[in-house]
Amino acid sequence: MTTATGETTLDQIEKVLDGIRPAVRADGGDIQFVSFEPEKGLVEVRLVGACYDCPMSTATLRAGIEHQLRHAIPLVHAVEAVA
User: What is the pTM of this model?
Assistant: First the structure.
């Protein structure tokens, strides 16, 4: 799907993740975009580095990544971390 500005949803997702990455990288981790399932509104990401087994990774995923993506991209309904 393409927005009025010509950006595809995948480009929008990457743009939002690029905005989040500096904070995650400052803690020694990173976020890798894996996939987007438009029919479900599901974004899959992989948390790597220090984020992989951090006890706060669930909070980062829900309160940070999912919140930002859902706010910026109406087609996104949920974000899940995959191994």
Answer: 0.86
